[in-house]
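Notes, Module 5: Reading structure tokens.

Key idea: the token line is not a picture. It is a compressed description, and you learn to read it the same way you learned to read a sequence, by spotting repeated patterns. We will look at two proteins. The first is printed below with its tokens.
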Amino acid sequence: MPGTSRILEDHNRFKDIIRGRIKKDFKKYVTHGEMIGKQENEYVKIPVSSIDLPKFRYGPKQQGGVGQGQGEAGDNIDGQQAPGQGQAGNTPGEHVLEVDVSLDELADILGEELELPRIEPRGHKNTNVKSLKYSGRGPVGPDSLRHFKASYKEALKRSLASGTYDPKKPMVVPIRRDFRYRTYREVVKPQANAVVIYMMDVSGSMGDEQKEIVRLESFWINTWLKRNYKGLETRFIIHDAAAKEVDEKTFFSTSESGGTLISSAYKLCQKIIETDYPWNEWNIYPFHFSDGDNWSGEDTRLCLKLLKDYFLPNVNMFGYGQVESKYGSGQFLKDLEKEFHSDDRLIVSKIENRDKILNSIKDFLGKGK
């Protein structure tokens, strides 16, 4: 219908305008976390400002038209309230519109802005997923799969063939032998599954600002990986001198005051992978965020050994993000760069502040692993 086509055209044009506004202010959306709290299912509510409101354009004064007649400027229209007291403001209000944007759209914008390559899942990490494909019609089946249109056609053909069809009283009632049902077959499709395991140091040197940076960055990493994988799971580990698995809310709100043993998180991560995510069936993405402090050089050597012998041979990539803190030494990043300077399976990124989040995301995802 022409009207429907016009509406769709206007809707698509509006979406293009919104997309342009989001791209223009994309860094602001990445570095401020308000919209993450407005996530609903696969959509996020984004406040978009400066949407121009319609304005009237008046013609020359000498032209006639509506609104002509007696009356003075400032007189009330019938039924209109009298002017209020007080002084009017002289600055325009900010017009803010909340729009629903899908996570897939956000991922595409992120990919365009950072020029991220599409991820190529490891071939041997595909799992076979069974699904049903409806491929035809049959004379038997459950009532839930009965196809009304096909059943009616069969009844109509029977009426015409038997001569019982009356054009003046075109009533056609299907009987049992007219019923047709949708038939299906089982289809096996390879589906790439992925798991992201986030680890974070929650010792006293990691403050609220550092955790907020990790929260924002992990949201955008998840958004991109979900665009590339049909099945994505996330797990969360916090650690100080000991590590434990927690839910997402606890991950971003826990504060501890003990020492730091990074190997405790790596050991727990290894256990989770070996128990739930066989490396030959899953695409695995561990990410560790810390301010770079570790309890001892001995524990650092243990971490390097775990990375070299277990993680790097078996995961798609291992990401280490070092969030700058005035209390952290930053030594762990230096040790990683020294040991694995030429190994692109380990990606390290220094996140000095919120403005560096986009750069860090590109560090982690820019190689399409």
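Here is the second protein, with the sequence above and the tokens below, as before.
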Amino acid sequence: MKKYYLAVLLMVLPVTAYADAPPMPSMAGPLVARAAPYSFNTTPFGKVYVTGALTGLVFDQSSPATGDKSDLADISNGQIFVQNTMGPVQFFVQSGAYSTPALGTAYLRADKTVDKTYGFIPQGFVKFVPSDKFSIEAGKLPTLFGAEYTFTFENMNIERGLLWNQENAVNRGVQTNYTTGPLALSLAWSDGFYSGHYNWLSGSAAYTIDKDSSVSFEAGGNLGETAHTSFTTPLAQNNSSIYNVIYTYTAGAWTFNPYFQYTYVPENAPIGINHAASTYGAALLAKYAIEGNFTIAGRAECIGSTGSAANGAPNLLYGQGSKAWSFTVTPTYQQGRFFGRVEASYVKATDTTVGSAFGSTGNDASQGRLLFESGVLF
């Protein structure tokens, strides 16, 4: 409860303005972090900034899986972020409760999400910055993959999408970053899907084409093998390779963010993967800023998988060889630190395996959801 009292206190304390919002957590919009967060001076880190998110959601869905509910209310974020952004030694610590709703998967309440995933400190790292072009980070790091972030307030939509379900979200390891002109490079050695086994190499290269557009390529994979599995460490995905190409274009009130994804799981019979399999998908994320603090965001996706149960391939979607598409729309209103948004989403699966899709029996081919999320970013 102390975290929640601190959150309320920070919302009423006077704040110190400065030119740029803190770099973490990353936010794709339409929600915008407070531009004048609470700050205080320390030794030896200098000015330290404290921001946070206190949000909740309610939703209703069709075809809930066994153990899931057709409707519920929950906290989606009760988090505080502490960081410094200057000097040769910097840090970021994210703490609190959270849920991570995603399309086509059962909803896990915040208390269980914290317990089953990344704990009360889901992300936190020390950053060494010897120059303005080069840095090294070590700790619990956000993934280098994909066009969507882990937590609801960071993204265009409340729920993450079908392609996000194939990517890791948080990994423990070391990451180097180098920027020169329009090119930004990152390379990370980590435990992949939070496995505790450090055998993943991941990298990204982002190029800013002009003030309106950029493109990035991301690639990585398991250089060994990992038999360990857990809620955050699916066997097949943690032994896979992932490739993304992401493009971002802004034109006035519009932002377009198409991206393509390919994943590959090699055969590895000793750990239970008896045949190779892959996924291939594409997504288009877009948002439009309307006058009066309103924004509308949308996402359309399609994804397919290869392999069959007969040849022993792993199930990467809704059964071996299954496919799916989705559509999501999210109108958002933000006034200062307060926001509210509604979301409607629909997922349709095809070529499914019996028992691997939606509903109490796993045989429903589609699922619709209606959500409302509201809260404060302070």
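Summary for the second protein:
- The first strand starts at residue 38 and ends at 42.
- The chain has one domain: 2-377.
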